[in-house]
């Protein structure tokens, strides 16, 4: 069997270590040779942002971020960056903090040092997203790829278990969607396989031992690998659906991925048997989709769109929006009826095979 593919790897520095975020941030900023940074911090990361600001020059600080990066917030942050003469960005927080930093970098070209406090994986990709009038617009640009990522498991010690579980499912979704995304290739598959090998036991251990450092470190490592695979392979059916639903109906990002992943996996499984086999073998189940849903159930994650606030009367409207953006390369052909049935099943929490 002949092997042919065209793979692109992005250049990025990764500093991994528990309990040394302030020193590692100073090290990263020194390497960039910049004067003062725009510091973006989520509310939950205010203390670590304070500590960083004590040791690293800050031109301006933005506290508090909003999911799905509303364009008004992006515009305001860009104005702050210009007015303060910041020549770099430090973002501390989950995917929303990283997303706002990317929105600034997209226009200004400022280099980003990303310090994630969840397992979202946005820090490892060149993908950006912003919401304009209820529609989430996404794209890819190397200008938004953080120059340096600093991973510190200590920053996730206070993350509520339910939030941590959904965040790890978000990472698992990067790995799974990367198996059948438009630019999927053997290298992405290898990264996804290793990430799933690490993430699946980590999420179980995290649910059972929420105060343990080891599963948090493993999950950060796995989340990074999954995001690198996703960045290279592109956004597949699962992520396209989640971007539409999240932007239009303001649904919680990680929880939305958790709910939708088993249903998209069930839809694609027969058309992508090698991907389904990889997932099911890692889960030690006979069905990839059922295994993912069982993992969500046993770890206490949300299981239905109804639970996370999706309005049932919007299924038809949402299906049309999703159909507009699902890649034509999806392993199984998609039409309006298929998307509507998928969303209906996810709303009701139907069993998957």
TrEMBL record:
InterPro entries xref list: ADH_Fe/GldA (IPR001670), ADH_Fe_C (IPR056798), Alcohol_dehydrogenase_Fe (IPR039697), MAR (IPR034786)
Keyword Transferase part of the UniProt annotation: no
Positions of the Alcohol dehydrogenase iron-type/glycerol dehydrogenase GldA domain: 12-152
Pfam assignment, any one: Fe-ADH
Fe-containing alcohol dehydrogenase-like C-terminal domain span: 165-347
Protein's recorded name: Alcohol dehydrogenase, class IV
GO molecular function: alcohol dehydrogenase (NAD+) activity; maleylacetate reductase activity; metal ion binding
């Amino acid at each position: 069997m002949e092997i042919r593919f065209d793979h692109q790897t992005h250049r990025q520095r990764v500093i991994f270590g528990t309990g040394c975020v302030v020193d590692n941030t100073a090290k990263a900023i020194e390497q960039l040779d910049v004067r003062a940074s725009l510091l973006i911090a989520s509310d939950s990361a205010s203390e670590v942002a304070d500590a960083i600001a004590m040791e690293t020059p800050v031109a301006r600080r933005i506290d508090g971020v909003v999911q799905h990066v509303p364009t008004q917030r992006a515009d305001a942050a860009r104005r702050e960056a210009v007015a303060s003469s910041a020549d770099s960005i430090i973002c501390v927080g989950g995917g929303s903090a990283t997303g706002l930093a990317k929105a600034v970098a997209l226009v200004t070209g400022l280099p980003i040092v990303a310090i994630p406090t969840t397992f979202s994986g946005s820090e490892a990709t060149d993908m950006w997203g912003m919401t304009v009038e209820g529609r989430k617009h996404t794209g890819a640009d190397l200008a938004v790829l953080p120059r340096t990522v600093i991973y510190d498991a200590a920053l996730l010690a206070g993350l509520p278990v339910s939030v941590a579980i959904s965040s790890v499912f978000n990472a698992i979704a990067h790995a799974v969607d990367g198996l059948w995304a438009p630019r999927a290739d053997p290298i992405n598959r290898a990264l996804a396989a290793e990430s799933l090998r690490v993430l699946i036991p980590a999420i179980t251990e995290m649910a059972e031992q929420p105060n343990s450092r080891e599963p948090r470190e493993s999950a950060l490592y796995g989340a990074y690998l999954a995001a690198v695979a996703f960045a290279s392979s592109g956004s597949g059916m699962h992520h396209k659906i989640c971007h539409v639903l999240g932007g239009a109906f303001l649904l919680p990002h990680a929880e939305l991925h958790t709910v939708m992943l088993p249903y998209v996996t069930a839809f694609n499984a027969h058309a992508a048997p090698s991907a389904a086999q990889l997932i099911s073998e890692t889960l030690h189940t006979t069905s990839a989709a059922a295994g993912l849903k069982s993992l969500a159930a046993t770890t206490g994650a949300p299981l239905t769109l109804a639970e996370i606030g999706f309005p049932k009367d919007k299924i038809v409207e949402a299906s049309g929006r999703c159909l507009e953006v699902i890649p034509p390369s999806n392993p199984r052909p998609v039409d309006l009826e298929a998307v509507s049935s998928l969303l209906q099943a996810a709303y009701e929490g139907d069993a998957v095979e």
